[in-house]
Amino acid sequence: MEQSYLDYLKNLEIEQFIWTIIALLAVTIFIVIINLFTNRTKKDTFLILGQSDSGKTLLYVKLRYGQFTQTHTSMKENEGYIKIEDNGKPLVKEPIHIVDVPGHEKLRFKFLDFVPITRGIIFLIDSSTCVRNVRSIAEYLYEVLSNKDISKRRIPILIACNKSDLITALPPERIQPILENEINRLRSTRTAALEHQDLSEEVEFLGYETKDFKFEHLENEVQFEKCSVENEEFKEIKEWIVEIFQNRK
Ligand SMILES: Nc1nc2c(ncn2[C@@H]2O[C@H](COP(=O)(O)OP(=O)(O)O)[C@@H](O)[C@H]2O)c(=O)[nH]1
Ligand SMILES: [Mg+2]
């Protein structure tokens, strides 16, 4: 009698133990699946960044509606799932989440909210005024490139030199070294300031300490293209988005 009661207890313990293991396994698998799923859907966003008036909203609108619509300086970001097409031909099956972040100095920090879900960044430049505005363009770009998350995840960046239709527009081959020089200059003042405040943990040092700044020194893949959104010459931007989107892990 006593023996069978002991057996009963032992069986009960084993059964409880097995059920506990099964429950733990089920919870773990569930968490892993949820993580995989959310990570996958969460990092597929493309950001359109750049100064005010560089053509961000026009690019967004043309990607979305494929035709000209009047744009206005917006205070809020535009976002939506867009089917990227070229001449009515879809370049990718799934719609892609695209966000146009206003370039106004007081609003552009909003891009930080989207970094955790970002797959790629299109940084627009007005090629016709970029020499005059090089300081503020470089400052914005510096903020983007030195962001820890952007650099750690090696988020690819397309620097799209827009308004190439204007006579005063510089080609990307001219714009790139001008930006590199300006970023180099910013880097020395910023690094000195950071060392002073001991904030160097929060931003990434750009490039190599012993060399002048070059985009090719970055971990991120940075590509330059020229385009004219107004004249419908921005196929390279669409192809870049689709390529990065399809190569996602
Ligand atoms: N000439 C020319 N003007 C452009 C081009 N792309 C945009 N624009 C003009 O630049 C101005 C600012 O465009 P918008 O999209 O509002 O810039 P955002 O402030 O960056 O969103 C508008 O008047 C556009 O028509 C382009 O490729 N060529
Ligand atoms: Mg805009």
Structure description:
The chain is α/β, with parallel strands linked by helices and 249 residues long. The protein has 2 domains: 1-42; 44-246, 3-Layer(aba) Sandwich (Rossmann fold). Helix content is 44%, strand content 16%. The strands form 2 sheets. A 6-stranded mixed beta sheet has the order 2-5-1-6-7-8, with helices on both faces. The protein binds guanosine-5'-diphosphate and magnesium ion (MG). Guanosine-5'-diphosphate (GDP) binds at residues 50, 52-58, 71, 73, 103, 162-163, 165-166, 228-230.
What are its keywords?
single chain; 249 residues; alpha/beta; Rossmann fold; 2 domains; 6-stranded mixed β-sheet; two-stranded antiparallel sheet; 44% helix; 16% strand; elongated; binds guanosine-5'-diphosphate; binds magnesium ion; SRP_receptor_beta_su
The secondary structure category is alpha/beta
Strand order of the biggest β-sheet: 2-5-1-6-7-8
CATH topology (level 3) name of the largest domain? Rossmann fold
The main β sheet shows up as: 6 strands, mixed
Rg (C-alpha, Å): 25 Å
Percent of residues in helices? 40-55%
Mean pLDDT, all residues: 87
Summed up, the domain count is: 2
Percentage of residues in DSSP E strands: 15-25%
Alpha-carbon distance between the two ends: 62 Å
Q: What ligands does this structure carry?
A: guanosine-5'-diphosphate, magnesium ion
CATH fourth-tier homologous superfamily of the largest domain: P-loop containing nucleotide triphosphate hydrolases
User: Helical element count?
Assistant: 7
Tally of DSSP β-strands? 8
CATH architecture of the largest domain: 3-Layer(aba) Sandwich
Series of secondary-structure elements, N-terminal to C-terminal? HEHEEEEHEHHEHEH
The shape is elongated
CATH class membership of the largest domain: Alpha Beta
Uncertain segments:
none
Pfam family, one: SRPRB
GO molecular function: GTP binding; GTPase activity
Transmembrane segments: 17-37
Subcellular location: Endoplasmic reticulum membrane
